[in-house]
Amino acid sequence: MKGNVIVGQSGGPTAVINSSLAGVYKTAMERGYTRVYGMRYGIQGFMEEQYIDLSKHIKNELDLELLKRTPSAFLGTCRYKLPEIHEDKAVYERIFELLDKLDISVFIYIGGNDSMDTIRKLSDYALLTGARQKFVGCPKTIDNDLAITDHTPGFGSAAKYIATSTKEIICDAMGFSYKKKNVTIMEIMGRNAGWLTGASALAAGEDCAGPDLIYLPEIAFDVDKFVEKVRSLLEKQDVVVVTLSEGIHNDEGTYICEYTSGSETTDAFGHIQMTGTASYLAQVISQELGCKTRAVELSTLQRSAAHMASRVDVDEAFAVGGACVKAADEGDSGVMVVIERVSDDPYQSTTGVYDVHRIANAEKVVPREWINKEGDGVTEEFLDYVRPLIQGHYNPMMVDGLPRHLSMKVQNYDWAE
């Protein structure tokens, strides 16, 4: 007997995080594992013995297809930082006690940078103690900032949604331009990496000029120069649309959002709450230039819009989930599954595995050569990299005019059954 698999989801969700979960479940069943357990609310919930038997929720192929199309994290997530082993050994003893209790052979964690740190620590503890479990990281983040992998599941769908929304917002702004100057500023997720904001440039085409200015956190942001650029554009046109990352900062490293009141809270990893950048800059433009301004914060929409998911992204997320089970089944531990790009035209990719110690806590940012000289746009090389990832569409299963999702009715559920 192979024992059981347990899988958890951690950090911010994506439109395709559950496609990876579906890939884990299907592959584990095909490879002869007895059960697949799901951690409720990641490692934090697991330590409180909150877990489910996924077979009670995924009963057939239709459920699997619904799960692939379901936004948010089906299992629930957490932002919990495991201590270093030498700091609190009791935490690890508790986790491994539960793993043995459930006869777990394979532990898979779907997440981003901080989640890969969890895999690093658990696999190191297993090595120290001779524990039999295998630990594999499944990449997930709309930010696309995980090292080594060509890109991360979740990024392509978020990029597709952002590019689409940018086009639609530009159309909306143009409709109000008669004898009126107006500036729209779109705030897009991305703390230190501007992959998502750069994707807004995909809006440009035969039917749309695209955003006028694009600001990524890889380049220091100067508020005064920004105002002058907008002023100059308004002398030539009535509408200006700007896209920028929530994490843009000045040359001293101060986030622009810190000039607002929204950055006073932090999470378990010390990350400040990113919000209010667009609103602050819209207010500055209104005061300095006296024109109509609008701030648009896409917020959680960009990571939950499963109805706009890229087929490439859904399929790759599913494949990556399956590859995690395969890697553990073949003896790998302390690794993350990565996506390797084989070709751009036609687009093809495959999966591999890489030492999680080289990935955890590392951050992949947009290369400087993929940002234009002025620091207010991206290059064709950037667009060539992103464009294949937004292709195709997964049609939602519509019921009564709305998408149907797989639902977990937790209110009467016995967590540890």
Summarize the structure.
The protein has 417 residues and is of the alpha/beta class. It has helices at 17-30, 42-46, 61-68, 89-101, 113-129, 155-174, 195-199, 223-234, 277-289, 301-304, 311-329, 380-386, and strands at 4-9, 36-39, 51-53, 104-111, 134-139, 182-188, 213-215, 239-245, 292-297, 335-344, 347-355, 398-399, 402-403.
Please count the beta strands (DSSP E, at least 2 residues each).
13
Strand order of the largest sheet: 3-2-1-4-5-10-11
Q: Which stretches of 5+ consecutive residues score pLDDT under 50?
A: 410-417
CATH architecture of the largest domain: 3-Layer(aba) Sandwich
Strand content: 15-25%
CATH topology of the largest domain: Rossmann fold
The number of helical elements comes to 12
The assigned structural class equals alpha/beta
What is the terminal-to-terminal distance?
21 Å
What does this protein look like?
- The chain is of the alpha/beta class and 417 residues long.
- It folds into 2 domains: 4-141 and 308-361 and 395-403, Rossmann fold; 155-304, Rossmann fold, CATH 3.40.50.460.
- It is built from 12 helices and 13 strands.
- The strands form 3 sheets. Strands 3-2-1-4-5-10-11 form a 7-stranded mixed β-sheet, sandwiched between helices.
- Strand 1 (4-9), helix 1 and strand 2 form a beta-alpha-beta unit.
- The radius of gyration is 22 Å and the shape is elongated.
- Residues 410-417 have low confidence and may be disordered.
